[in-house]
Each structure stands twice: as structure tokens, then as C-alpha cells.
């Protein structure tokens, strides 16, 4: 299986924006990633799918440098990120939207939205953000944590779009949301892709993942066990479901 | 019952209360900033206040730098010392229980006070009043320097509150207190921000020390004498609440002053009675939940 993974990666990997090679990571003494290897190409929307505890979120957190102990290689446009601090990684052009949304309760919606600094050119303007997320404008003065789950998710995505980062790490943006809101989030993510953002998405909702992604990386026990194109994902749904135990 | 109380005595004690309240407010605000934004119980705050006064005195006696220069130079020097403390000691404890920070900062108090006492002795050292004279208001004599202390501390407190609550920098600090990893993931150097926050809080303590030098004698124990009251003020205002610390500081200074007029025997304990009442009726402080930090 590993041979197939590396062959798939090599065949499709023309010029990866993000290249993860043999990534191992630990929470204290507990090893949670066991040689994760995959690439994300520029402009691509790649999902990490797998069961709970497979290591998907940990992979994103490792990329952002949240985990102290990591080995292997994480390269962004060829530049090594292992050994760098989180704020340095962010300044290289990676933005992170966490699973728990991490809206700041002490700040208003507007303060939450405009908290991240502009790190490089190419980020969305204030007007663009309000045009993409009009309901946030109406709630600008409210405390961030008083928004509904869907609005909080939109706020969590909106605030990272003004930084100028071109690679977005989105951790389960559809989790716990009503179907109509999930659809809206899906539309926004597709729109971001058409605007040229590269997106690495952790997702458990297979229907949602199928609609938005170009490729899917299946993660089990902290390592990549399969990489599927959109077509392979459609036709091999039984295989995917067996990976996920659905 | 209180016919024997003269207007002069009453207003004199109100003024004294306001002056003490100015120091309580500035010191408790610094403590609240450090606790509210860094979760560090800075027991060394009193020693840093004392260092501010001593540095002002040393600047005057060795380099001839007068009060007005020391007002800016001394807080910067003590803040740099605070930055070193944060980097070398407090940062190592940041993931541990508050108790470790409290014990470490208490150990710093013992070291700092011990060194100052060993070098300069325990006796209080006078510092010349930079604004001598005053104005007779008819019902009381108001020294100019004391008026300056009240006005300056009020401006400093309001300015600091505005900085924390109504600026982008303040929003970064409040956000970093809630979720430091996420703020760092926005590209902000949070460890450096924490060092500067601690330095700012320490600088405020030192600024209070410089203000206090001409009023009280400069002595190694001047910080220890005031820090317990300041902690009580912070508890009453709400741990980490900047507005709470400032309002409670001034209010309790005046209450303490008035108690000296009406029932002097209770003057030294009245603040602690208020603290006990606050802990009983509103354990998280009077201003808890009314602001973010």
C-alpha cells in the first residue's frame, strides 16, 4: 500500500506547494503520527479523511508547529518548516482554521474578524470579506461567541482570508452544522478554490468531502494508507467506507 | 456623634485616601494586566515598585538625573530587569500551575529586597519633593506634588485602560490570553508579546515607585508594606479586571482615609473587610464579567 501511495504522490506531484515527508509527531511521549507522506499542489483542494483519532487534526497541528516534538520534513514551496516557530510558519503563508473555531469571547465579531494581521499581499479586502460573509457585517458589534455555530464557522474562515496566506488548513468546517449551513460553507470553500487558494481540508463528512475536493488522502493510525483522485473516490466508495468503518 | 470632626480633617483624609488610592490603583492595575494577560500572580510587584523608587534615588545621587528624568528612565530600567525575569524564570513556568509562578516571584522578592537591604540598609532614605509648595483651599492645604500624583496616576490608569480595551494591540493581548496558540498561528510573536506585557506591568510598578519616592521614604520594605493591600484591591476589583483594579484602588483608598476619620481603629483592616465581603458575595470580584480582561 505504501508503494502505491508514494507512486501516486510521485506521479501526480509536479510542483507541490506543501510537501510532507515521513512526518512523525508526538503528544508528550505518545507517538501519534507514524511517517505521514503526502503533497498538496498549488491551487488544489486536498482532504484528509479517516476515522476519529487517525491523526488528521494532528497532521494540521504539526504543520502549524503546535507540536513540540516532530521529525521528518514539511516543506512549503521548498522551504523547510520543521524547527520553525508557529508564528514564523504563519508568516510563510499558511493560515489555520481550527476544528473548535477558536472564536475569542473577549472580542466582538469585528475585532475577531480583523484580528489577524495582513502578512502579505493578496489577502481579501475588508469589503470583499463582508461581501463574502454578509451576515457577519450585520453582527459586527456582537461578541464573537454569541454567534450561531454556522456564523462562528464563517467568522473563523473569514478572519484568515485577509492575511494574504495562500494555503488554508481547514479542520472539519462542517462539523456540528445544519445541512443548509454545511451547503453554504461548501459553496464558500469552492469559491475560495476558484480564487486560487490552496486548501488542505480535514473532513469526516464524506458527502461534503466528495463535493469539494480534488484528491483525498486516507489516514489510518497516523499514516497515509491511500490517496484517491475525485473519480477514484466516486467509484471506490465501498473501499473508502471500509477504511472509515462506515 | 461626629461633631468633633473638622472639615479640614475630613478633606485632608479624603486627599490622603486619594493619594493612597492612586498608588493602589496603579499597582493593582499592573498586577491585573500581568495576571489577566499572562496568568502570572506577580508577587514581586511590590519589590518592583520599591526598585522604581530606589532607581530614581540612585539616578539622582550618582548621575544627577532629577525626578522628571527619573520618571521616564527608572521605569524603563526596571522594565528591562522585568523582561530578564520573564525570560529567565517565568517563561520556564508558563505551563505549570499559578502556584509555581507565585512562589517564584515571592522568591524574587526575598532576593531583591535582601540585596537592596544589604547594599543600602533598612533605614528610609528621603527624596526631595520636585514640586514644593501648595495651595490653601480655605478648608485645607493642598500640596502641589500630591495633586500631581493624583492627576498623573488617573491619566496613566485611563490611558492604560484605553490601550488594553480599545486598541488593536489590546485586542492581541486579550486574544493571546484566551488562545495563545491561535494568535501565534496568525503570525504574531506571542512569546515576545508576553515578555513586553510583563515588562509593561513591571514598568507601571516602577513608575508608581518613582511617584511615591518624594511622599514616602525610599526603603527596601516599602513594597512589602503595600503589596498585600494591593492584592486585596485586585481581588475586590476582580482578578485580571483592569477597570475593576483602578476603580477599586481609588475607592478603597478613599474608604481607608474616611475610616481614619470616623473609626481610626479599623483603618488598617477596612480594606480586608471589604475583601472578605467581596469573596463572600461575589468571589470573582465586583467587576468580573463586565469587561474582557
TrEMBL record, chain B:
GO terms under cellular component: plasma membrane
Entry keywords, A to Z: Amino-acid transport, Cell membrane, Membrane, Transmembrane, Transmembrane helix, Transport
Molecular-function GO term, any one: transmembrane transporter activity
Ranges in coiled-coil conformation: none
InterPro entries: ABC_transp_permease, BCAA_transport_permease
Transmembrane segments: 14-37, 49-65, 71-90, 99-116, 145-164, 196-216, 228-255, 262-281
Membrane topology according to the record: Multi-pass membrane protein
Location in the cell: Cell membrane
One GO term of the biological process aspect: amino acid transport
Family per record: Belongs to the binding-protein-dependent transport system permease family. LivHM subfamily.
Protein name (Swiss-Prot/TrEMBL): Branched-chain amino acid ABC transporter permease
Biological source species: Zhengella mangrovi
Amino acid at each position: 500500500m505504501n508503494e502505491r501511495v508514494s507512486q501516486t504522490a510521485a506521479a501526480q506531484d509536479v510542483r507541490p506547494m506543501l510537501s510532507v515527508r515521513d512526518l512523525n509527531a508526538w503528544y508528550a511521549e505518545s507517538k501519534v503520527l507514524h511517517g505521514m507522506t503526502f503533497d498538496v499542489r498549488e491551487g488544489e483542494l486536498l482532504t484528509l479523511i479517516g476515522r476519529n483519532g487517525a491523526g488528521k487534526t494532528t497532521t494540521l497541528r504539526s504543520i502549524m508547529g503546535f507540536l513540540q516534538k516532530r521529525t521528518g520534513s514539511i516543506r512549503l514551496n521548498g522551504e523547510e518548516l520543521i524547527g520553525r516557530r508557529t508564528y514564523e510558519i504563519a508568516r510563510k503563508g499558511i493560515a489555520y482554521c481550527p476544528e473548535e473555531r477558536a472564536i475569542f469571547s473577549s472580542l466582538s465579531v469585528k475585532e475577531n474578524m480583523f484580528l489577524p494581521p495582513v502578512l502579505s499581499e493578496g489577502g481579501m479586502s475588508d469589503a470583499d470579506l463582508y461581501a463574502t460573509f454578509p451576515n457577519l457585517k450585520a453582527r459586527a458589534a456582537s461578541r464573537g461567541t454569541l454567534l450561531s455555530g454556522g456564523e462562528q464557522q464563517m467568522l473563523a474562515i473569514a478572519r484568515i482570508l485577509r492575511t494574504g496566506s495562500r494555503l488554508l488548513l481547514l479542520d472539519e468546517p462542517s462539523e456540528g452544522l445544519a445541512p443548509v449551513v454545511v451547503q453554504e460553507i461548501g459553496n464558500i470553500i469552492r469559491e475560495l478554490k476558484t480564487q486560487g487558494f490552496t486548501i488542505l481540508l480535514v473532513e469526516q463528512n464524506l458527502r461534503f468531502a466528495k463535493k469539494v475536493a480534488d484528491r483525498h488522502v486516507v489516514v489510518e493510525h497516523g499514516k497515509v494508507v491511500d490517496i484517491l483522485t475525485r473519480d477514484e473516490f466516486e467509484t471506490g466508495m465501498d473501499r473508502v467506507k471500509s477504511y472509515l468503518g462506515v | 456623634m461626629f461633631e468633633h470632626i473638622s472639615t479640614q480633617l475630613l478633606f485632608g483624609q479624603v486627599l490622603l485616601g486619594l493619594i493612597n488610592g492612586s498608588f493602589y490603583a496603579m499597582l493593582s492595575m499592573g498586577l491585573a494586566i500581568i495576571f489577566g494577560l499572562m496568568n502570572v500572580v506577580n508577587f514581586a510587584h511590590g519589590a518592583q515598585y520599591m526598585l522604581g523608587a530606589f532607581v530614581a534615588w540612585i539616578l539622582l545621587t550618582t548621575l544627577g538625573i532629577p525626578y522628571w528624568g527619573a520618571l521616564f528612565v527608572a521605569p524603563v530600567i526596571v522594565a528591562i530587569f522585568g523582561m530578564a525575569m520573564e525570560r529567565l524564570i517565568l517563561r520556564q513556568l508558563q505551563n505549570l500551575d499559578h502556584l509555581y509562578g507565585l512562589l517564584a516571584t515571592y522568591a524574587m522578592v526575598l532576593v531583591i529586597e535582601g540585596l537592596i537591604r544589604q547594599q543600602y540598609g533598612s533605614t528610609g532614605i528621603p527624596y526631595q519633593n520636585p514640586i514644593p509648595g501648595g495651595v490653601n483651599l480655605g478648608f485645607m492645604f493642598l500640596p502641589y506634588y500630591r495633586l500631581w500624583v493624583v492627576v498623573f496616576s488617573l491619566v496613566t490608569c485611563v490611558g492604560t485602560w484605553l490601550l488594553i480595551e480599545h486598541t488593536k494591540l489590546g485586542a492581541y493581548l486579550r486574544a493571546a490570553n484566551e488562545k495563545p496558540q491561535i494568535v501565534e498561528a496568525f503570525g504574531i510573536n506571542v512569546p515576545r508579546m508576553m515578555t513586553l506585557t510583563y515588562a509593561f506591568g513591571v514598568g507601571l510598578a516602577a513608575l508608581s515607585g518613582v511617584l511615591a519616592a518624594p511622599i514616602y521614604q525610599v526603603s527596601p520594605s516599602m513594597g512589602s508594606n503595600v503589596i498585600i493591600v494591593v492584592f486585596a484591591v485586585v481581588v475586590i476589583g476582580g482578578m485580571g479586571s483592569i477597570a475593576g483594579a483602578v476603580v477599586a484602588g481609588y475607592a478603597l483608598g478613599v474608604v481607608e482615609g474616611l475610616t481614619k476619620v470616623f473609626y481610626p481603629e479599623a483603618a488598617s483592616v477596612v480594606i480586608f473587610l471589604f475583601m472578605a465581603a467581596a469573596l463572600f458575595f461575589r468571589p470573582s470580584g465586583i467587576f468580573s464579567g463586565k469587561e474582557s480582561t
